[in-house]
Design a protein that fits this description.
Distance between the termini: 43 Å
Order of helices and strands: HHEEEEEEEEE
Number of helices: 2
Structural class: mainly beta
Radius of gyration: 15 Å
Strand content: 35-45%
Number of strands: 9
Largest sheet: 5 strands, antiparallel
Shape: globular
Amino acid sequence: MPPMNRASFLPLLSILLAACGGAEPAPARPVARPDPPVRDVMDVLHRNPIRRDEEFRETRLVRDAGRTVLLVQVNKALPPQISPERDQVVLILEGAGTLVAGTKTLETKAGDLHEVPRGTAWSFANLGPGAAALLVRDVAEPPAADGPSPAKP
C-alpha cells in the first residue's frame, strides 16, 4: 500500500506536536531521538528507516510533563503496550495492520486514528510487505473543547 500524501498529515501532526521542544532526560530503554523541536515527522521517518532485522523501532519525538509522542516503525509486531495513567492516541502514518486494544481487534490502515483508554493493553501487528509507521501520543486530559474532564476514581 503506498504511503498517504504528506500534506494530508500536516494539520494533524501540527496539533499533535504543538509546543514541543526542550531537553529530554536519558531514556530508560534504547530509543532513537532527533534533536528537538520536531516539525516534520515524515522527514524524521524517512531519514531514520527501520532496518529489516528490527522487529520494531521507537523514536521519541516529544517528552515533557504533559505528553509523550513516539514515532513507532513496525516490521512484524509491536509487543503489548500499556499506559496506566494516560489515554493514548495512535495514528497510522504508513502501512496497514491489526491493532488489538483490550478486547477489540481492528484492521487499520494509513490515515486511521485510534484512541486507547488509559490502562488498556494494546498491540499492533503489521500486515503489509513493508514497514508500518505509527504516531503514538499520550494524552493527559481531554481538550477543554470536549467539555469538563471526567471525575477521576
